[in-house]
Amino acid sequence: QMLDFLKKGGYIIANRYVTSNMAYQGAKFSDNKEKAKFLKWIYELEYKVHRLPKEDIVIYLNLPTAVSSQLIIKRGKPKDIYEQDLNYLKKNELMYLELANKYKHWAKIDCLENGRLLSPTNIQQKIIKLLQTKGII
Question: E strand or H helix at 94, and its extent?
Fold first, then answer.
């Protein structure tokens, strides 16, 4: 269904797709060779075996772990299994940054400027500007 929709000119916007799996699971590896093998395996499995459509662009909304962990606390809800481990969250942040630097179709948007969290409207404006610059919209 996704492929048919895309062939007809549709757009799919996904929160948490293949690349999130790569980041969250890849962050668990300490050995770079093993991590590289794993990332290649996920890529092959999802895009070639399962034939999920490869994204044209991945927008990574970058927020340092120190800030995101404070937002998690303010949220007032129980932390999920990943949110309970600050060390893992930091590894995950580094993994996202590694992927953002590795893949040309990734774009990083910093959600913190001069030590202040940007408003959702400001983040949205950055996303729109990025998509216009890339000729997507």
Answer: helix 86-102
Residue 107 pairs in a beta bridge with: 59
CA–CA distances in Å: residue 135 to residues 15, 19, 123, 126: 21, 22, 18, 14
What is the pLDDT tens value at each position of the chain, 137 positions in all? 888 999 998 888 888 889 999 999 999 999 999 999 999 999 999 999 999 999 999 999 999 998 988 887 788 878 877 777 889 999 999 999 999 999 999 999 999 999 999 999 999 999 999 999 998 88
- Report helix angle 65-75 to 86-102, nearest 10: 130
Separation of alpha carbons 17 and 22, rounded Å: 9
Nearest to 85 by CA among 69, 64, 61, 105: 69
32-43 and 18-26 helices, crossing angle to 10°:
160
Question: Per DSSP, which regions of the chain are E strands?
Answer: 58-62, 106-110, 112-113, 116-117
DSSP state for residue 134 in the 8-state scheme: T
